[in-house]
Design a protein that fits this description.
Blueprint lengths: L1 E5 L5 E5 L4 E3 L2 E7 L3 H8 L2 E8 L4 E11 L2 H10 L2 H9 L9 H14 L11 E15 L7 E8 L2 E6 L3
Antiparallel strand pairs: 1-2, 1-5, 3-4, 4-7, 5-6, 6-7, 7-8, 8-9
Length: 166
């Protein structure tokens, strides 16, 4: 999914992240909390998501507030990650300047030695975020650019549904 966030200075940033969970509470992804997206979400806990399926000519747009997942949720997901991905999370100073690829490879090797023969614990700087939707739009491409747009919005009395012009 594409995740859009807003920096403290008002700049908008978008990137593709992996959706790792969805339920009645929202849409979950995981990251280094010190990454650009982590810092932006801490400063401005709002985000937009976009799921696009070109072969189907459909997309779903989500807007909402953002909250960090619980420690238990983060731990559970962390344990399901492959060992090399856990080592990589420790080695990566996500979004910081990297002097060379060799530096990253060296950091990976150092953490492989550090955690040799033991479980790789979840670092304090690694967790997940949940986008709690307050607006969801379903878009379907139609002939002559007469697309179908259905939007659901959460208000004080629950969800409302309306159509939008294309």
């Amino acid at each position: 999914m594409t995740l859009a966030t807003v920096a403290e200075n008002g700049g908008v940033s978008a990137r593709v992240v992996l959706l790792r969970g969805v339920d009645e509470r929202g849409f979950v992804f995981y990251t280094n909390l010190n990454s650009e997206k982590g810092r932006q979400l801490e400063a401005n806990p709002a985000a937009a998501l976009c799921f696009h399926w070109d072969p189907l000519k459909e997309q779903v747009r989500v807007e909402g507030t953002v909250e960090q997942v619980s420690e238990d949720e983060a731990d559970e997901y962390w344990k399901a990650r492959p060992r090399d991905s856990r080592i990589g999370a420790w080695a990566s100073r996500q979004s910081e300047t990297l002097e060379s690829r060799a530096v990253l490879v060296q950091r990976v090797a150092e953490f492989e030695v550090k955690f040799e023969g033991q479980d790789v614990p979840r670092p304090d700087f690694w967790s997940g975020f949940r986008v709690v939707p307050n607006r969801i739009e379903f878009w379907k491409s139609m002939p002559a650019r007469l697309h179908e747009r259905i939007v659901y919005e959460l208000g004080e009395d629950g969800w409302t549904k309306r159509m939008l012009y294309p």
